[in-house]
Structure formats: structure tokens, C-alpha cells
Amino acid sequence: MVEFALCFLLFLGTVFGFAQVGMAIWIKTTLHHAVREAGRFAITGRTVSGLGHDASIRQVVTRNAAGLIDPAQADSLITIEYFDRDGSPTANNDGGNTLALAIADYPIPLLVPAPLSYAGSPMTVSVRTVDRLEPFRNPPAR
Q1: 139: which DSSP letter?
Q2: What is the pTM of this model?
Q3: For residue 122, how far is the Cα from the chain centroid?
Q4: What is the pLDDT of residue 40?
Q5: Domain regions of the chain by residue span
Q6: DSSP letter string over 7-53?
Q7: Quick check: 27 and 122 in contact, CB under 8 A?
Q8: CA-CA distance, 60 to 55, in Å (whole number)?
Q9: For 63-113, how does the pLDDT look when each residue is reduced to its tens digit (9 = 90+)?
């Protein structure tokens, strides 16, 4: 019984450790997919009806994030930056500029309660995509 209890604890630790790493990888790939799809949407200059360009980009990220990002969190989690042809930051989303779209420090929830798990800083993931905007026929409203 004692040997079983000790081996079972090691087995459970290994199983939950692999599950935690697997969940972190799934979250990172899902967020990366969402950011990549939003970047592809953004470079064309299209907008979702009734929304500006940045709000449309955030909505595409949220829609492709498989429920990981609540629409109320989108403004605080999603960062959208534009750079002109010289690489200087700009507030302008004109065609030919570069778009940098990121989700930084998304927290990975723990599978095991805090007293039984690592009590240090929480695990986080960050994803980013950079694309050049195509020349727009009708510049979108920000």
C-alpha cells in the first residue's frame, strides 16, 4: 500500500504536468492562429460593418480565439501598432504601413489548485504577427 501510494503520487504529478504543458501549447497555438488570421484580415483594409479598422481587427482576433478572449478583455489584451515605411511608429493605418499585432502575457490557468502546484508567478504566453498593409482603395476609418 505504501509503495502504491508513493508511485501513484508520482504518476499523478506526471499526468498533471503533461496536461498542463499540453494546455499551454494548445492556448499558444490557438492565440497564434487568431492573431495570424486577424493580421491577414487587417492587411486588406476591410472592416466589419459598423466598426472601425482597429475594432474590426480586435473582433476577428476574438472570433478566432476559440473562446479564450472575452470581447470585454479584447482592448486590454490585444495590441495594435502601425509603423510607416521608415519604421517609425505612427497612428496612421494607411496602405504600405506595417502592422504589428500582439497578445502579450496571456495567463495560463493552473489545472491543480495553488497549494499543490508551483506557487511562483503564473505561466503566460505571448504571440505576435507583423505584416505590411496593402495599398487601400478607400482608406478605412480608425
Answers
A1: P
A2: 0.83
A3: 16
A4: 92
A5: 2-132
A6: HHHHHHHHHHHHHHHHHHHHHHHHHHHHHHHHHHHHTTT---TTS-H
A7: no
A8: 9
A9: 999 999 998 889 999 999 999 988 899 987 778 889 999 999 999 888 876
